[in-house]
Write a structure and sequence with these properties.
Layout (H helix, E strand, L loop, with lengths): L4 H9 L10 H5 L10 E3 L2 H4 L27 E4 L8 E4 L7 E7 L2 E4 L1 H4 L8 E7 L8 E6 L11 E5 L5 E3 L12 E7 L8 E6 L26 H4 L4 E6 L2 E4 L1 H4 L9 E7 L8 E6 L6 E5 L5 E3 L1 H4 L3 E2 L5 E4 L8 E4 L7 H7 L5 H9 L5 E2 L3 E5 L5 E3 L1 H4 L7 E7 L8 E6 L8 H18 L5 H5 L7 E2 L1 E5 L5 E3 L1 H4 L4 E2 L1 E7 L8 E6 L5 E5 L1 H4 L3 E8 L11 E6 L2 E6 L3 E2 L3 E2 L4 E6 L3 E8 L4 E9 L2 E6 L5 E2 L12 E3 L33 E4 L8 E4 L8 E7 L2 E5 L2 H5 L5 E7 L8 E6 L12 E6 L5 E3 L10 E8 L8 E8 L11 E5 L5 E3 L1 H4 L8 E8 L8 E9 L2 E5 L4 E4 L8 E2 L2 E5 L8 E5 L15 E6 L8 E8 ...
Parallel strand pairs: 18-21, 33-41
Antiparallel strand pairs: 1-32, 2-3, 3-4, 4-5, 6-7, 7-8, 8-9, 10-11, 11-12, 12-13, 14-15, 15-16, 16-17, 19-20, 20-22, 22-23, 24-25, 25-27, 26-29, 27-28, 30-31, 31-32, 33-38, 34-35, 34-39, 36-37, 39-40, 40-42, 43-75, 44-45, 45-46, 46-47, 48-49, 49-50, 50-51, 52-53, 53-54, 54-55, 56-57, 57-58, ...
Helix pairs in contact: 1-11
Amino acid sequence: MIIQFRMRAIILVLLTVVFYSCSTDKNNNLSINDTETLFTLLDAKETGIDFLNKVKNQKNFNIFKYRNFYNGGGVAIGDINNDGLADIYLTGNMVANKLYLNKGNLTFEDISVSAGIEGNKPWSTGVVMVDINQDGLLDIYVSNAGNLKGNNHDNDLYINNGDLTFTEKAAEFNLAKTGFSTHASFFDYDKDGDLDAYILNNSNIPVSSLGYAEQRDKRAQDWENVPAIFRGVGDMLLRNDNGKFVDVSEQAGIYGSLIGFGLGVMVTDMNGDLYPDIYVSNDFYERDYLYINNQDGTFKEDITNWTSHLSLSAMGVDIADINNDGNADIFITDMLPEADQRVKSVMEFEGYNVFKLKQSKDFSQQYIQNTLQLNNGNSTFSEVAYFSGVAKTDWSWAGLLFDMDNDGNRDIFITNGINHDLTDLDFVNFFANEIIQKMALTGRKQAIDSIINKMPVKPQPNYAYKNNGDITFDNANKEWGFETPSLSNGVAYGDLDNDGDLDMVINNVNMLPFVYRNNSDSLTTNNYLKIKLEGDQVNKFGVGSTVKIYHNNKIYVQDQMPSRGFQSSMDYVMTIGLGKATKVDSLRIIWPNNKTQKWNNIEVNSTLTLKQSEATEIQSSLLPKKNKTLVSEVLKTNLQKHQENSYSDFDYEGLINKMLSQEGPALAIGDINNDGNDDFYIGGAKNQPGLLYLNLGNGKTALSIQKSFDKDAMFEDTTAAFFDANGDGNLDLMIGSGGNEIGQQNNYKVRLYLNNGKGTFETSKNKLPALRKNIAVISPYDFDNDGDIDVFVGARSMVATYGIDPTHQFLENNGDGTFADTTEKVAYDVKSAGMMTDAIWKDIDKDGKKDLITVSEWDTPKIFINNGRRLIKQKSTLDDLFGMWNVVEAADLDNDGDIDFILGNQGSNTIHKTSSENPVKMWVNDFDNNGTIEQIMTNHKNGKDYPIHMKKELTAQLVSLKKQNLKASEYAKKSVDELFSTSIFKNSIMKQSTISESIIAVNEGDWNFSVKKLPSRVQLSCVCGIVCTDVNNDGNLDIIMAGNNFEFKPQYSRLDASHGSVLLGDGSLDFKWQNYNTSGFVIKNEVKHLKTISDKSGKTYLLAAINNEKPKLFLINE
């Protein structure tokens, strides 16, 4: 759980304040939904489950004394007496734990007292059912925490006596002394046959005292000047040595620092080497851990290589395959609300400078949002939660991936709610400040009731998302019966009534548990398969086994790993939904010792018992095989890294959402020495000279030293082009500089370097007309057909006045390498082209003259017809496509003889969605009349435009708005026309975006273009570079794309989910995305330009210019 740092400061002042929990009576009499939904919430009087996790703040033990006071309890489901019915265990924080025996027909008996499992610890958290002593009976392991005096938080292990009684023996197995534990997972990490343990701990040290300390390698017990009550121990890996669990954490490479705030742990084989790996989700500023098993008893923590960004307040974790491709995907919960009003009422986001500080200290990129890490099958993930529609679910705890409706696709269920809205901004900004002032004036502590009455309590519904089968999910709360507001934490699933679908039990704070009956058996015609595992003598429940079902070109994968989600444990009997399948093609199980079995033609709606003793085959590694790919990276190059200078646009433009000062490097291609090989220029960042590389053929390059480039290192190169400027037969180089730095406008211009024919480029003595704008594109072409090359120069923005359209340039060649600015005469219409990002020349009207096509941010693609004298704006249906366009490419993709366009947009993996009905808008004006331009971005909803910005962000820029003294909850409800006068908006520049997807604009003739959205994997990030070529030599054009954009404010996350896209075409506009192990085209970073180069032997390469990284070179395989 995360509590905002401002709130922590107030907590320090109010340490003795006690909060009284919300009334239990009010929440016990929940109305049961009579409408027929997929799940039915059962009445406690019918089920017999009357447990109540009552949490009440006390004088010496409360939310201010114990940070995790509202984290709630866990649930375990398992058959403790082997009668074929799954039983239920619930942990209590301040009350006794409970065990309910399943009596059939969803009725249960409380046997807690007679079973001896209630426990005597003051604060229980997670629970897992596991057969510790391998007698065939499930035991119960309970994690304990809290920081009450007496340090009484040893974990409990209840050994099953086989007669519905248990004996606590944690100390006997060395499983008692484990720190402030959240949860545990049992698995065989060293593959010696028995079950080892990972104990997940949550550091008890006050977060505010750490100051973003990065002492990840210092073990908890080694921290000096930390009171014993806060020290505890870090996470623990315990090896099972003949029934005794031995701490091997340090030697195994497991972090054990006080900065570890573990809230979730999940074990599975991430990379297909048949060894279990470990994922740990950490709250607060410490990043998550991904431990890859080295197969020698040690682990390598490798999360920054596998992922591109993470959840900031990471809570629960589950790992399963959401798209049936056989790869394990990861879902992490966080605390970002879905509703815009609630976001503005309870959230404060990190500032960019704090974000960069944490990034510099190896805390990776963390954002307040749920994350869904899509496994790319090549030891990398793409984070897709915004694209999938599952990023915002409020203060969430457990997130479980399982098939809720038996349709064959894993859905997502999320528990939600916090006992008090600790981050409510009105409380933090107004009431808490008032309390502090009164205390300062009177010297008296405020009464408890006066505080609790002001602290909001807002239960929230849990979330159920239906998997659409295309990496997207739809909210199914209403249809599936999950609209009841609650304060829910741990949840577990299992088939409690043996009808072939998964029921659920949810542990709530100060509310009765929810027991949900799944009605898939009666409301759908979907089929299922139940699987029971019988392992060997040292792992009788087959923990760590993997079942793979193959049917209809899909793979259904289920791991036998009960500990998942948040503080909870699932039933051991697998229930796998199969949709409409009437028979399973084949099933394979891989046991923990790598023995394997296969079955064919299995009947559905049945229970299959699999026995490890019958397995005879040995499973070989499932690591991806290295097959021939469509392109292959040239790994050994002498290409040098592009290195951005340090500058923050947000210091001067507080309302823009992304940086514009980091758009390099430039890329230009051309054979400068006429040897038949394409050479290339890579632009430098500010104070870094650009570099010219000579192509030696066969993927080898040599750096050509150019003194003139060194002299111009102060320029930031954003675009470049080779062409013969002076007609001497040699390619010269024109470079455009850009950026968004205050005071650097004079450096934002084009420069011309003339090739002397001997491999040396010298600065042209004739100065070019200055533009003093953030230059985005240089596009050369002999516009007037007079034998010399003219140049169009497009600008993206004005320095520090984002949203104001810049002017562009048309430079007419005088025939001798000098240029005249003829923009007014030749390109007058192009003034309306907006904040340009790319421009190309292509003959659209088939008159033999190339026309100009431009794309811009907050604007539409535009066609300017070349009549030989000037460029004239041509109306087309493209004029309706307002987007954040980055790049355009043109080709005849459907072989009908006309030119189609591929248009690169920002994609759909963004926090703010847009459409023609509900566009995202940007309003540009001097809103407070202080001589400075501001930009206000809005979402359109119900006919009104609401600011995207948080109140604090907007009032920091607009003093006039600050004077209104609005509460956060008041601001959250106001549209822009309620915040500002009508006259201001009538005089504002309004820009909009109505489409976010990258598309093909199919030329239908008569200037009509139909829109064909590119495959979903392309939409996971922005597209900034496009190449059209025949990759697989089938005679059809294919498309290669790359992009990403990192430098956004933290509340917007960042665009990093594209690792490159290869789309194979069939000549009829059907383009299929190729996975990375097939394409071979993988770039995780920010690609700014993508082009092809060829050598004289006929080989063609892809060349990617990458911001803040070395360029990458790929051979297009023959």
